[in-house]
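Sync notes, pocket subgroup
Present: LS, DG
LS reminded everyone that the earlier model was apo-only. Rerun requested with pyridoxal-5'-phosphate included. Inputs:
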Amino acid sequence: MKGNQEELTMMHQKYLAKGFASTRSCYVKKALGSLVWDINDKEYLDFAGGIAVMNVGHSHPTVVAAVKAQAEKFMHTCFMVLPYESPVLLAKKLCQGMAGTCEKKVMFANSGAEAVENAVKIARTYTRKTGIIAFEGGFHGRTLMGMSLTSKVKPYKLGFGPFAPEVYRIPYAYCYRCPFGKSYPDCNVRCADHLEEVLISHVAPENCAALIIEPIAGEGGYIVPPLEYFPKLAAICERHGILLIADEIQTGMGRTGTLFAMEHWGVEPDLTTTAKSLAAGLPLSGVVGRAAIMDSVHPGGIGGTYGANPLACEAGLAVFEVIEQENLLERGVALGEKLHAGLKALEQEFSLIGDVRGVGPLAALELVKDRGSKTPAPQETIAITDHCFDQGLILLACGTYGNVLRFMMPLITTDPQLEKGLAILKNAFISVGKR
Ligand SMILES: Cc1ncc(COP(=O)(O)O)c(C=O)c1O
């Protein structure tokens, strides 16, 4: 190590911009599987996975070996100048791994936000229309288009306007806080039908290129729409010639027990964005979509200097290998069942928990001051994540009101590790003092 905690903290404050903030003050020395160690040798159980990036676990040996081997061969030629095999093989894996029957193609970029930017460019080129419908609670990144599509103002948009035009925002299927004041299933999924009204009152179908939506709203609070929601939305989109873009940057690569979350709703989006766990920590993102749509862009119109970086693509191929060889999708489902049971048990004990939700190993607790009023409890949420951190459990909050605890642990997390994490969490609830 080149610095101790104190020196690093001082340099951090002096040289790194305040806006480029870290939530925790420790410095990581090592991470392996579901565990992380800081430079003071404190061990943490990681239930955040670098924000849903480490589905195969930290420094998985297969990924490390693939990256090392590639580093010794070459690290960059620029795929747009001199191509190499890994992006071709990875594109095939993505096309074949994604559910659905239509022929697909892929383009690669680096960050999730870039994938979103490219999906919008592709949708606009194909449809020759400009309008994009996005959702309340949606998060799509920090670039101009990404933050324009993003809903939450603080910290993502505050002071950064003007935003990209032609973005129309509509409510999400947030059943716990129904924007239409209804209850499922009596509502008949009214929120999906609302799209038809938006196409009359906000943007004409003739001007609307695409609708971009997270299958499960991630930063928005791990909100899971009902089963009828996406088939209904997809049908309306199809009727009006509007492309359906699924932003699976957080929900993809096994996070919900299937390779991509849209499988749970049986809907085949026109375009899907992927990133995060795609390359187990190396910067890699992509757009996967119907071949005819993907091919509508002229050569050179999409891409970039580092898109399909060889180290990242080798890591991506290794991720697919690990998922297949270690049956990580099945394992994720089993992990999710245990996690859900543990969270349900906490719900019985602590009235601070207003809602337990999730799909497979993607899970969340929404915290409220009391179950009747559903008043969000953000301070208690922070107190719980702080307590967990002190006790060696890394847990992140999310949600429009900052009152949702989300679970994004590596899918290789063992049963004893899960139990240990849940025990720390239970103690955190006790420490906050609301039974
Ligand atoms: C659904 C979704 N879209 C886009 C992004 C942006 O990805 P990145 O931070 O890699 O730009 C994120 C990141 O959290 C995300 O969860």
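DG: The pocket of pyridoxal-5'-phosphate is lined by residues 51, 111-113, 116, 139-141, 214, 218-219, 247, 249-250, 275 (CB under 6 Å).
LS: The chain has a mean pLDDT of 97.
Action: DG to write up.
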